[in-house]
Amino acid sequence: MKDLAELVRPNIWSLAPYSCARNEFQGVARVLLDANENPYNSPLNRYPDPLQRHLKSLIAPVKGVDVDNIFLGGGGSDEAIDLCYRVFCVPRVDNVVAIEPTYGMYRVAADTNDVGYRPVNLSEDYALDADKLLAAVDEHTKLIFLCSPNNPTGNALDDAEVQKVLRGFDGIVVVDEAYSDFSEKPLFRTRLSQFPNIIVLNTFSKAWGCAGIRLGMAFASKEIIDVFNKVKYPYNVNTLTAEKGEEMIGRRYEVSKWVSMILAERVSLMDAVAQLPYCKKVYPTDANFFLARFTDATKLYSYLVTEGIVVRNRSNVTLCDSCLRITVGSRNENSLLLAAMRKYRG
Ligand SMILES: *Cc1c(COP(=O)(O)O)cnc(C)c1O
């Protein structure tokens, strides 16, 4: 890995961050008259902790990472993805390399930041070829985006190939583990110390059932997290989101039960979909969704919409020709989907 000073944009490396009242004062106060807050309407009258120390102290043991290795974003993973660009990529000069197909936000964030985006196709069965990916890297490549388990394909990437990317690239490798709670495969989150150039993304939106609170996580070396903290908006996780996140950590056994129920449903739903006469292939998955190929996915998609059922049409995505991405729902939701699909005659 190159020195962080070489990878981070020069203006960011030398940035003097905004210093807010709650950053400067750390002790126990009797009276808070430093931030022009309103004395009424407690507790929402107060600015939240800019570094979310309490929430991070609860997340750290659950995720098996140190507090200093955690960044939290109140805009979901999208915030961390955007920060990766803003921290590392000089617009119109630098570029990023990513697997294709994958999560659409990596490209959108590249476009909004005016940074080159270089997609490299996975194999026909959605496997990662590290050498092929690394061949797309040039001297202006700052980031590589990997997603494992990958969206929309569902599969976890081969651990040895991901390691090869991490060791073979001197910039930053982002490994998005948004769906890792549904997977048995080894995690990169718990191996941060082995890979100084890794940023692992997690989210409260999927297994934790909290897409509505927009709480995203990034795990990386303390040096990288410190740069993220310098660039983020000062109060980037609001009080309501932080409180709900704290509550959810206390409900983590319930979350495990949800994951188990979804995994059990996943087996039966995938089996049933594979039996449909117009289903050509169901792809193996490590996530709470799966990709399936049909004789005419767009027609099937439109039919399901008329039945009030919405799945994701991925027909126009690279390597996903005539595929739908189906989220595993509750037993009842899955039954309604299957009943509608069994009625369908193509
Ligand atoms: C759903 C998803 C996320 C979560 O995004 P949030 O902004 O945290 O809701 C992140 N990465 C991938 C690949 C996803 O599919």
In short:
The chain is an alpha/beta fold and 346 residues long. The chain has helices spanning 4-7, 10-13, 21-24, 53-63, 77-88, 105-112, 130-134, 159-168, 222-231, 239-250, 252-275, 297-306, 331-343, and strands at 70-73, 95-100, 116-121, 141-147, 172-176, 198-203, 216-219, 279-282, 289-294, 312-313, 323-327.
Topology:
Layout: H1 4-7, H2 10-13, H3 21-24, H4 53-63, E1 70-73, H5 77-88, E2 95-100, H6 105-112, E3 116-121, H7 130-134, E4 141-147, H8 159-168, E5 172-176, E6 198-203, E7 216-219, H9 222-231, H10 239-250, H11 252-275, E8 279-282, E9 289-294, H12 297-306, E10 312-313, E11 323-327, H13 331-343
Parallel strand pairs: 2-3, 2-4, 4-5, 5-6
Antiparallel strand pairs: 1-7, 6-7, 8-9, 9-11, 10-11
Helix pairs in contact: 4-10, 5-6, 11-13
Pyridoxal-5'-phosphate (PLP) is lined by residues 76-78, 103, 147, 151, 176, 178, 203, 205-206, 211, 216.
